[in-house]
Amino acid sequence: MAGTFRGAAPDTTTALESLVARLAETAPGLRVETGPGSTGPYASDASNYRVPPRAVVFPRGAADVVAVLRACRDAHVPVTARGGGTSMAGNAVGPGVVLDFSRHMNRILDIAPVERTARVEAGVILDALRSATALHGLTFGPDPSSHSRCTIGGMIGNDACGNRSVRHGRTSGHIEALEIVTADGVRAVADRTGLRAADPEDREAVERVTGLEADVRRLIDANLAPIRTELGRIPRQVSGYQLHHLLPEHGFDMARALVGTEGSCAVVTAATVRLVATAQASTLLTLGYDDVVDAAEDVPEILRWNPTAVEGMEEAIVATMRARRGPDSVTGLPDGRAWLYVELDGDDQGAVDARAAELLDVLKARGRMTGGRVVHSPAERRSLWRVREEGAGLAARLVDGGESWPGWEDAAVAPEDLAAYLRDFRKLLAAHGLTGVLYGHFGAGCVHVRIDFELATDTGRAATRRFLTEAAALVVEHGGSLSGEHGDGRARGELLEVMYSHRLIQAFAAFKEIFDPAGLLNPGVIVAPAALDADLALHTPSEVLPVETLFSFPHDEDGFAGAVRRCVGVGRCRSDAGGVMCPSYRATGEENDSTRGRARLLQEMVRGGTVQDGWRSTEVRDALDLCLSCKACSSDCPVGVDMATYKAEFLHQHYKGRVRPRSHYSLGWLPLTSRLVAHAARPVNALLRGPLGKLLARLGGVTTKRRIPAFASRRALRRALRTARTGEPAKTLLFVDSFTRAFRPEVAGAASRMLADAGLPCTAEDELCCGLTWVSTGQLSTARRIMARTVARLDDGDDRPIVVAEPSCAAALKRDVPELLGTDAARRVAARVHTLTGALTDLAAPGWTPPPLPDDIVLQTHCHEYATFKGRHPRDLLARLGVTKVDEAEGCCGLAGNFGFEAQHYDTSMAVAGLALKPRLDGIGQEAPAVVVADGFSCATQIDHLAGDRGVRALHLAELLDPAAVRPGGTS
Q1: In the prediction, which pLDDT does 608 show?
Q2: Alpha-carbon span 641 to 658, nearest angstrom
Q3: Where are the alpha helices (DSSP H) in 137-202?
Q4: Which of 371, 391, 567, 761 could form a disulfide with 439 if both were Cys (CB 3.0 to 4.6 A apart)?
Q5: Could you give the CA distance from residue 714 to residue 243 in angstroms, rounded to a whole number?
Q6: Is the CB of residue 45 less than 8 Å from the CB of residue 570?
Q7: Measured distance CA(780)–CA(788) in Å, rounded
Q8: How far apart are CA 242 and CA 265, in angstroms?
Q9: Judging by beta carbons within 10 Å of its beta carbon (0-12, 13-18, 19+), is residue 778 exposed, middle or buried?
Q10: How far apart are CA 255 and CA 176, in angstroms?
Q11: How far apart, in whole angstroms, are the C-alpha atoms of residue 783 and residue 768?
Q12: What percentage of residues in the chain have a pLDDT greater than 70?
């Protein structure tokens, strides 16, 4: 039954000011944020729901949590605990205070290898724990797909499982003890035998906790029958409270009983978890099927082979991955329209491989597979697991542009009933005219599905409610659970009455009331739940921000509004490793500096929610300030958020008709000023190296902590291109961009010689500009004029490939130009654009042999090349050309065009460089020499800033492959 819990909190507006004042007294230094720029990103998680909080608090330890809960109790303000914010059921949003544990309470307190336990704070990221325990040959068993950003506290909150739950089960099975704070601010420890006060000397706490435990025992004794008959029936029965752990036969295991309560009974501050040994050997099978139901039919047989994982997914997810990241992003799959991943492990690799081959033969004999193979390559395995792990995001915005949503994304049945359930579930979808993309933990009977609900209209919401009610009845008919690992939250709490008896529902309510009599902890979930169609994010007000934009956003039906709506909150941008996204978050650790945080704030701006000022919003401007415009999110984000483009559009609208920051003029107009400087490069360079140069830098908003690169003369460019002429008929057009022309004309000459050597002789075009600097500073009207002029010159009937030495300019021509101009001519030009890497990969003469190359190379790939030219990365090219070791600094260099030159961004720029690039450069010395390759001018400039005083200079790929270059020993 939807409704409010007894004593539910009133509107918090009047209580907020006194609450903040009290916390300033009781927890000095505690960070409490109340402004819309800080609370807006916390209004949503990865679910369909939006509940703006009144404040966000970042506790530093359990004492801070105690202070907050006591203050909120007295002020009658609700509290919601939050980890990574990746909940798909609405478990991590709330109307009062949100406690973000991930920011500070993320310490691993102890690892006991002999006992195989670890004690961790609630905000510890799962991957951080796994990395630390791996040193001892141990790991934490449950492994959700969000392992790179989910927290242990969040996993405890909804009893998370993961890809290997066939072997390791749920989080509840790995918890030894929980350190909690009750709703009235009492610290306690819940363990396998009950509940005790954290401080046995605190008589008041001991009395409170003793009474609490006694009340729980009486509740269990009064409800033995429904608890024994209705709970714990299938492996993935996560819905409701897991009160069966408190049965006498289970030893009154309070720790496990509180797992999965979604922060509605107590706030977990730390946990002692049990670890498992890592496998000595493992292998992966990929099995193809015509249909997911056929795949599910084989699951019972596969489970007989004791696998660690049996994961399933449909073809739409694979197609989206390939479209977003290139055809080579998914390899190793056999023919089919649905697939199973089966992982086997053991102590001996040979024995594991033999079992895998035998299982493959057995499944072939059963006749359902369309194909199958054992995946031996570690790279292919990583690629395949990445597809499965990003299923939620990939399924949210498919390659055809369609949107899908959670809400019924977590149902579970017994594995042997999975095929029958899926068969009936598909009939239900068809009966309602809905389409779902299926994936999930087939070996555990847990099915994730995103469905094309229409949540923005009254009619669509009513239809969604009808479907969810029937879906709940269907899964119960199959003996299943509404939730298998995501928890009930706001999405399924109302439907618990379909699954459980009225008596058990009352027992759930009584359990919560014992712990939280005022109903302040995460109200609206599980007990007295909010209506499943209340607080929907897409239920937007009738008045929203007009979104007429200069960028066309051709892949988003609703233009800018649809583009920012791409973010569904899965939080891939909050990962500390893997891919390039998001450098600013990795440097600061702030939600507002993540791609998700910025996208959520832009969504608030569009809807006129917590952000009221539209395009003039200073909160949005400030959130976008540290975005490096690296574009990595457009590739790494599973739903393809492109924050660089959103930032450019926002800056255009925000500063329309207003004075801009000084750097927008000094750096945004660099292509024009550099062209003028080229006529007097020598005296200008001399002037910039002196005191007047520092004054001019300050006046232009440019940091004085960097050397301003020396400008090249017009004569230097002419000389470089003249010496590169071969006299052969041109097959390509070398686009000499503004950076190459102004600062390193030698790269243009090397590129011309290299292309000729590779069978791609060129002519050079050095009078045009891609408009990039005007785009990155949000001067889009000027950018369009520049681009239109460039397109008019290039679209002259010539269909030769356009090769661009500077990756950022190549990316601008490839993507920004057609999306800003929106013309057929712009699209024709974009289709001809290649980076040097792309040209050599796709167009070089078949018999081309490069000059001798070094064995070891340190590589910095430009972020725009990484994001825009999928499957055409310098790392792969260098490996194919015979370089033995390519040590790539995976991540942004930190300079990022104008960003790192702007005075206010210097420190962040250096912090980003310190994540990947600087450690690689620091490893270079006389005893470990290496050639450094960086095609991007920004990257090369940052390398010079970091290591130039040690004689380290970055080569452009063209210089590395230049047949005329002088090599060690004096050869060319």
Answers
A1: 87
A2: 28
A3: 152-158, 165-168
A4: 391
A5: 78
A6: no
A7: 12
A8: 12
A9: buried
A10: 7
A11: 12
A12: 97
In whole numbers, what is the pLDDT of the chain averaged over residues? 94
Residues near 658 by beta carbon (within 8 Å), at least 6 away in sequence:
none
Helices of type H across 493-546: 496-499, 502-515
Q: Do 415 and 484 meet the contact criterion of CB atoms below 8 Å apart?
A: no
The full 3-state SS of 339-387, as one line of letters, equals EEEEEEEECCHHHHHHHHHHHHHHHHHHCCCCEEEEECCHHHHHHHHHH
Please give the structure tokens belonging to residue 548.
């007429």
CA–CA distance, 341 with 288 (Å, rounded to integer)? 9
Token pair of 805 as six digits: 């030495």
Q: Pairing between strand 954-955 and 931-933?
A: parallel
The DSSP call for residue 42 is G
Cα distance between residue 234 and residue 215, in whole Å:
28
Query: Read out DSSP for 301-338?
Result: HHHTT--SEEEEEEHHHHHHHHHHH-GGGS-SPPSSSE
Q: In what order do the strands lie in the sheet with 856-859?
A: 885-888, 856-859, 931-933, 954-955
Mean predicted confidence (pLDDT) in 348-360: 95
Cβ atoms of 169 and 415 within 8 Å: the answer is no
pTM for the structure as a whole? 0.94
- Whole-angstrom distance, CA of residue 468 vs CA of residue 411: 11
**811-832: per-residue pLDDT in tens?**
999 999 999 999 999 999 999 9
Cα–Cα distance measured from residue 734 to residue 752, given in angstroms and rounded to the nearest whole number: 7
Contact 660, 650 (CB under 8 A): no
Q: What is d(CA 842, CA 915) in angstroms, rounded to the nearest whole number?
A: 32
Query: Rounded to whole angstroms, how far apart are CA atoms 537 and 50?
Result: 5
Checking DSSP bridges between strand 802-804 and strand 732-735, what pairing results, if any? parallel
The answer to whether the beta carbons of residues 270 and 62 sit under 8 Å apart is yes
Report which residue type is found at 342.
V
Nearest Cα to 903, choosing from 694, 709, 711?
694
Is the Cβ–Cβ distance between 43 and 92 less than 8 Å? no
Least trusted range by pLDDT, from 379-383, 508-512, 896-900, 968-972: 968-972
Structure tokens at 839: 């040209």
Of 213-217, 551-555, 956-960, the least confident:
551-555
- What's the pLDDT at 540? 66
Q: Map tokens 């914010």 to a residue.
A: 85
The pair phi, psi for residue 449, each rounded to 5°, is -150, 135
Give 426-429 contacts, CB < 8 A, sequence gap 24+.
426/293, 428/467, 428/470, 428/471, 428/474
Per-residue confidence band for 410, with pLDDT thresholds at 50, 70 and 90:
very high
Say how many C-beta atoms besides its own lie within 10 A of residue 255's C-beta.
Answer: 24
Residue 329 CA to residue 62 CA, distance in Å, equals: 44
Distance between CA atoms of residues 543 and 606, nearest Å = 10
Distances (CA, A) of 890 to 129, 578, 863, 875, 887: 22, 8, 9, 11, 9
Across 600-625, average pLDDT: 94
What number is the average pLDDT over the span 573-582?
Answer: 92
In angstroms, the CA 8 to CA 528 distance is 10
- What's residue 967's pLDDT? 64
Question: Nearest CA to 854 among 879, 884, 888, 889?
Answer: 884
| Pairwise CA distance, residues 239 & 527, whole Å | 11
Structure confidence by residue, pLDDT tens digits, 910-926: 999 999 999 999 999 87
SS3 state at 640: coil
Nearest to 667 by CA among 911, 913, 903, 945: 903
The amino acid at residue 664 is: H
Paired sense of beta strands 194-197 and 833-835, if any: unpaired
Say if residue 582 is preceded by a cis peptide, omega within 30 of 0: yes
The dihedral through the CA atoms of 784, 787, 793, 798 has a sign that is negative
- Is 297 in a helix, a strand, or coil? helix
How far is Cα 276 from Cα 248, in angstroms, rounded to an integer?
A: 27
Res. 8: pLDDT tops 90: no
User: Cα–Cα distances in Å, from 157 out to 66, 123, 255?
Assistant: 18, 12, 12
